[in-house]
Amino acid sequence: MESFDLSLIWAVIIAFGIIMYVLMDGFDLGLGILFPFAPSEQDRDVMMNTVAPVWDGNETWLVLGGAGLLGAFPLVYSVLLPALYIGVFLMLTGLIFRGIAFEFRFKSHSRRWWSRAFAGGSMVATFAQGAVVGAYIQGFETEGMVYTGGAFDWLTPFSVLTGFGMMAGFALLGATWLILKTEGDLQAWAYRIAPKLLIGVLVVFGVVSLWTPFVDPSVWDRWFSNIQLIWILPVLALACAFLIYSGVKRHHDVLPFLATLGMFIFTYLGLLVSRWPYVVPPDYTLWDAASAPESQLFLLVGTVIVIPVILGYTGWSYWVFRGKVKPGEGYH
Amino acid sequence: MELDPLLLSRLQFAFVVAFHAIFPIFTIGLATYLALLNGLFFKTGNPAWKRLAEFWAKVFAVVFGMGVVSGIVMSFQFGTNWSNFSQASANFLGPMLSYEVITAFFLEAGFLGVLLFGRDKVPPGAHLFAALMVALGTFISSFWILSANSWMHTPQGTELIDGTFHVTSWWAAIFNPSFPYRLGHMLLASFITGGFVVAGVSAWYLLIGRDQLANRKALSMSLWLLLVLTPAQAVLGDFHGLNTLEHQPTKVAAMEGNWETQSGAPLLLFALPDRDIQGNHFEIAIPKMASLILTHSFDGEVPGLKEVPRDEQPPVWITFWSFRIMVALGFLMIAVAFYGLWLRRDERLYRHRVYLQTLRLMSITPFIAALAGWFVTETGRAPWLVYGVMTHAEGLTPSLTGGMALFTLIGYMAVYAVVFYAGVFYLTRVVRGGMLDNEREPDEQVERPMRPFSATHIPFDTERQGG
């Protein structure tokens, strides 16, 4: 039984689930953020049509992550959710409004309010998610495995910055997704805004990177005690940023989106490395937070069967709906 | 006034779950009905079955979509408001809830699209198979959720060590003593809900003279179903009650409004239970009936609320009255189903306008009865979160303040009010559009998968002039 570390396996699964959610819901939330700035109402239709067949599946990863966390790392679940109480509430209401607006906008002749609900819901949900990341970097006040802080401890200048950073990042994902999936005027618009969003992301990325080591001394030690291989992560993230820029300049359709995904992945890995192996910083490691081994094992059996199926199914959905989306062509 | 985070959290959970629950209560029954209609069409080739299947698939799509949206909140509620409970019970509840997500996703993601959009794109047998798999998915989903819930009522197969539950036997924990009764009672309630909604909508179509042939079939079929299921539910409910008497006597005492443990206990038809005086005002009772129902003997002993200290008694007023509402509606449903059998003589069933109007109004009753039943079982458990082991107060999130709980309670109510209004408004339009909406959609370039709402092509609002 002890020949393999169940908690470690679960940490990898959950970490994978989270990045899948961030990447996949990221670009469709990004479209919501860009929504009010789109050149025309027809372009908004096209924007929604690019994600219509897949966005439901994207949000499955969030539900999966929530349930999986309870099953494998209940401490994370029971400290983070109370600590982020208001933020979680904002995220959920944002996602609900957005989901309902998505469904009904296609059914409505008067679309203005549904468009606003879609954009507003996406912005609130994204900001809340970014602020959650900031709060996570800051760590949580706990005593005897119970959160003891206040309702607004998560809301600091630092987490506001990461909130806006996430909005810029998801908007960039949305813009590069549009470059990939559209053509004509809408694509030209996406090409124009992508570099501006990239600058915004890089500014936040820079400030957060400089600020983070001062938020917690253990992060400082991790990065500066001796120069290690982990420095490759920010270097790769910056290389991706350069690829986005050059891809946009050369009007390459695919490269900017892939490079943005890459930038998110390397930044995420950098964040994980900063905190490893603490899952409830600053006090509890993933082994402290784990549920009983028999529970982790019981759940693992189903998960290893189903996750490949979900991945295969998701991949197939994207394959079926590959290619450019033209105006007037809809899945609704 | 001091805001009580415990009371507000309980209200919030009750509100969120009640709001979410109305969708699955309906979709579980409807999914089975769709499978049945598709099966009948597959077997007989009668186009009336196909028309019904296509119409009810649209309704299913919208209700299912609403259930998914409102369900996102559910998986976070345990952590935000009941973090101590989450952490204590995660070894068991975590895997249960996760398996609900992954097994339901497995079947729904794979087959919902085929059911809703695949009729002309896959062989008929494959389409029927998809309908069966979606129905199976709803059963599997109920299985996990009700197992988790039943365990909170009759915990077994677990051991409490240092404030954390550890599973000693998965089999005993999943198939805990009240689980089979609870699951059966809930599934029957879902079928009855589906039956009354189908009957009500078909009755309305017959009243306005639309699509007589198919709707007569639908009405007849749902009434036969209800004729069997509504009495069966009463019998199963009785078994569930006996099980509750065995494992949660205090809950039964609250349901009966019975304070003293006594033999030959009366059945209270009306009473105003009062926890302060530890007794009832204004009792109207049938002597010895409660003993007869609960113990199947006139002189059987029935437990009283005073068996437990006052602070371990449930809020008896809610339990007592919710139970009466559920039972009364249950008898009403049985009566309506049997009256339909009476009207079947010489075909009056389809022309009796008062009866058809009654059926129309009855579509709402199974929802109220199911929610009332849910209130009975959940308030009857109070103050226990895990019966006899952990109280609501012990499970609450320690850092939660009354202000936070109130803020989010109002927030969720506002959000769900918008969602519910939009959803019901749109459903009404779908039902109005009904089966007249007959033209086939232009065969779209898309092969698969789409969002459930895509199954309907009915606009949300009417086009404004010049707009």
TrEMBL record, chain A:
Membrane topology designation: Multi-pass membrane protein
GO molecular function, one term: oxidoreductase activity, acting on diphenols and related substances as donors, oxygen as acceptor
InterPro entries: Cyt-d_oxidase_su2
Keywords from the UniProt entry: Cell membrane, Membrane, Transmembrane, Transmembrane helix
Iron in keyword set: no
Entry's transmembrane regions: 6-39, 83-101, 113-137, 157-180, 189-211, 223-245, 257-278, 298-321
One GO cellular component, as annotated: plasma membrane
Major localisation: membrane
Subcellular localization, as worded in the UniProt entry: Cell membrane
Organism superkingdom: Bacteria
Family of the protein in this entry: Belongs to the cytochrome ubiquinol oxidase subunit 2 family.
Protein name: Cytochrome d ubiquinol oxidase subunit II
Organism taxonomic ancestry: Bacteria, Pseudomonadati, Pseudomonadota, Gammaproteobacteria, Oceanospirillales
TrEMBL record, chain B:
Pfam families, A to Z: Cyt_bd_oxida_I
Compartmental location: Cell inner membrane; Cell membrane
Molecular function as annotated in GO: electron transfer activity; heme binding; metal ion binding; oxidoreductase activity, acting on diphenols and related substances as donors, oxygen as acceptor
GO annotation terms (biological process): aerobic electron transport chain
Cellular component GO terms, alphabetical: cytochrome complex; plasma membrane
Record has Iron as a keyword: yes
InterPro entries, per database record: Cyt-d_ubiquinol_oxidase_su_1
Transmembrane residue ranges: 12-34, 55-76, 96-116, 128-146, 186-207, 219-236, 321-342, 354-376, 404-427
Record key words, sorted: Cell membrane, Electron transport, Heme, Iron, Membrane, Metal-binding, Transmembrane, Transmembrane helix, Transport
Keyword Transport assigned: yes
Membrane topology of the entry: Multi-pass membrane protein
Family from the record: Belongs to the cytochrome ubiquinol oxidase subunit 1 family.
The protein, known as: Cytochrome ubiquinol oxidase subunit I
